Amino acid sequence: MTMPARPFLQSDTHGIVLRPENRIYRTSGDLGWSSVFVSEQREQPFAAEVPAAGAHLIVLHLGGPVVVRGAVQGHDVRKAVRPGGLFLWPAGSGFKIELEAAVDTLHLYLHDDVVDEVASSLGCAGPGARLEPILGGSDPLIEQLALEVSAAARTGGMSASLHVDQLALSIAGRLVRKNGGDRQAETTRHGFGRHRLRVVTDYVEDALEMGLSLKDLSNLAAMSVTHFTRQFRAEMGMSPHQYVVRRRIERAKYLLGYTQEPIAQIAHGCGFSHQEHLSGMFRRHVGETPARYRRRKRGAATR
């Protein structure tokens, strides 16, 4: 099984954020991501019966406290939910929801295919992999991962697709394990051969300026996304996302040191969504800004 093939659009959601009284701050709807859809918004009070969808909905409260009533799969709750409060409305189940006051929220939709992929790798595919609802609980790890996805929608754009795919797998893994799916599957599939790994790394090198995804890379390796990610880390000592970022930074360093290209042009040519995105990642990995690095390299060359 692989990542979903087509982009995850706002029309694939329950439509809660489309209520006219809500104020949407940002969504990932136009970024081409296939594994998740994320939005941040100011939700106004409402009550609704929400039909089932083909994706799991995580709602993270960013403000509060606010009283929420909810019911799904025979479970129901009425509680004051504080910032960090979490709801999981599982795929395939309709639910009832009543929000008693306005509050800022983050909605993250996770494709059921992604959860199935992770559940299979953990040895709990089938009915045992079905997720139980979370009604106003908390989970610091899911909260952190969801906020990272939202941050990627704000700053990373399409170039963050690979990172977001890995965040989606991490969220799915956390949810499956919370549901009791902690049996690591024994795998009989072979790891990377030299040729298969070379095909992947050559493709990365030729496509650094593109919005690479885990689906693209795992297809090249003829592996599932989960198995590919595990085998790549075992072979390279880092995740696919970390490898791609490192190669993008190395290309940017070369172009900064040996060409006259404007920094904004270098950013786009290396797969960063804009100059500020390159600057932030460059500072994190190299310890200085691209402009300072260029000045230092040019100064060294004239001595």
UniProtKB/TrEMBL annotation:
GO MF annotation, one: DNA-binding transcription factor activity
Domain HTH araC/xylS-type: 198-296
Record keyword Signal present: no
Keywords recorded for this protein, A-Z: DNA-binding, Transcription, Transcription regulation
Domain of life of the organism encoding this protein: Bacteria
Matches recorded under PROSITE patterns: HTH_ARAC_FAMILY_1, HTH_ARAC_FAMILY_2
PANTHER family reported in the protein's UniProt record: HTH-TYPE TRANSCRIPTIONAL ACTIVATOR RHAS-RELATED, TRANSCRIPTIONAL REGULATORY PROTEIN
Protein name (record): HTH araC/xylS-type domain-containing protein
Organism this protein belongs to: Sphingobium baderi LL03
Classification lineage: Bacteria, Pseudomonadati, Pseudomonadota, Alphaproteobacteria, Sphingomonadales
